[in-house]
Write a structure and sequence with these properties.
The complex is a heterodimer of chains A (about 210) and B (about 220). Chain A is an alpha+beta fold and about 210 residues long. Chain A folds into 2 domains: about 1-35, no CATH class; about 40-205, Up-down Bundle (Butyryl-CoA Dehydrogenase, subunit A, domain 3), CATH 1.20.140. Chain A is about 60% helix and about 10% strand. Chain B has about 220 residues and is mostly helical. In chain B, β1 and β2 (about 25-30) form a beta hairpin. In chain B, α2 (about 90-100) packs antiparallel against α3 (about 105-135) and α3 packs parallel to α7. The chains are: A alpha+beta (about 210), B mainly alpha (about 220).
Amino acid sequence: MHTACIECDCIISTMDIAEGEKLSCPQCGASIRSRHKNALEKVMAAALAGTIFYIPANVLPLMTLDIIGQTTSNTVLSGITHLMDQRYWWMAFLVFLCTMLVPFIQIILCSHIVFCYKTNRPHKYIPALLKFEHHIKEWGMLEVYLLGVLVSFIKLIGMGGISFDIGFYCFIGLMVSTIVMTTSLDHWAIWRWWENNHYRAVNHHD
Amino acid sequence: MTKPASNGHVTAKSLGLSACHNCKKLHKLSEHTGHATPCCMTCGTELHFRKPDSLARTWALLITSMILMIPANIFPVMTVVSLGKESSDTIMSGVILLAKMGMIPIALVVFIASVFVPVIKLLALTLLLLTAQNHWDLSLRQSTILYRMVHFIGRWSMLDLFVISVLVTLVDLGNIATITGGAGATAFGGVIVMTMLAANTFDSRLIWDKKNAGK
C-alpha cells in the first residue's frame, strides 16, 4: 500500500516491513514507520508499569535537602502547587501539562487503543484517540524533567546535604514506561486495522 | 543554478494525491474541488496538499516568540533570598554564576538548553521560512534535517522551567533560604510554547516543492 512522506511528500511504495525493522523516506530520510518486536505486548506491559508508577512518581518525594538540620523534600506535585502559591499560573500550568497531565492521558489512550486492537473491537472513537495520542506526544516531557531534577541536584550540592528519595526511582520507572509505550505503538498497523474494520463500528453494538 | 533533476522520486502532489496527515492514507485530491474541504474517508481528517497558511501562521508564531525573548532575558527568572540577602538572576546571569562557581558542565547544560537552543531555533525557523518563501537554493536534504532538529530539540528548553519548579519547592526554608520564581520565566515559557507550535505549523514539504517547480 502506498503513502507519501509527511516531510517531503515523496511517494513511498510500500509500508510492509518485518518486525524489528525501520522504514525511512528514500528522499529525505524521515522515519516513516518503525515496527518493534512484540510491539503490542510491549505497549501493554509498559502501560501497566506506567499505571503502577504514576501515582508514586508524582506524590512521593524526589529529593530531600538538609540545611543546618532543617529538611525539606519535593515532589512533582508540590513543584506545581508551590508555583501556584506564588501566583505563577502559567508556569504551574506548563509543568502540570508536561509532567502530569500528558503522561496520564498517554497511558489511558495507549492502553485503551491496544486493548481495542487486540480484542478486535473497532469502536467509533478509535480515530479520535489515535489522533489525540499523536498530537500530545511531544508535550510529554518526563525526560526533560528528569534532567531538570539532576541539574537542581548538582546546583544544591553546595548548599547542604541532598539525597535522592524513593519518588525519584518511581519517576525513572514512569519515564521509561512512557517512552517504551509511545515508541512501540505502531500507528500505521492500527490505522489499517481500523480502515478494514470500521464498517463494523457503525452497526455493531456491544 | 538548478540542482540535477529528480532522481526518480515522485511527490504525491504532482500526481494529485495527498496523504492524510493522521492515518497516512493516500487520497486522490483534485485541485478544483468545490466549497467543502475534502475529508479522509478513513479517519475524517481534512485533506490538504500542504498545511493551510503554513508560512503565515509560522511567521506569526515565530515573531511572537521573538518578542517574548526580550522580557524572557531581561526580567529575572528566579530570586534567591538567603539570610536576608536577596539576589535575582536572569537566564544569562544564572549561567554565568554557575560557571563562576566552577560548575562548568552544568553551566554548559543550562546554557545549551535555555540560551543556545531557543536562539538557534528562532534563527533556523527564520532561515527555513525564507528558504520556502524565496525558493533559495539550499540543500533540500540538509534543510529537512535542520527542520527535524528544530522539532526534536525544542522541548529540551523546558529544562529551565522544571529546574525552577524543583528549586522553588526544595529551597523553602523560611529565613535561611527561599527561592521564588520570576516574571522572566513566564515569558520564557511562552517562548518555548510558541516555538514548538511554530515548528508544528511549518510544512517542510514546501521546501521540496521548489525541486518540482524547477524541474
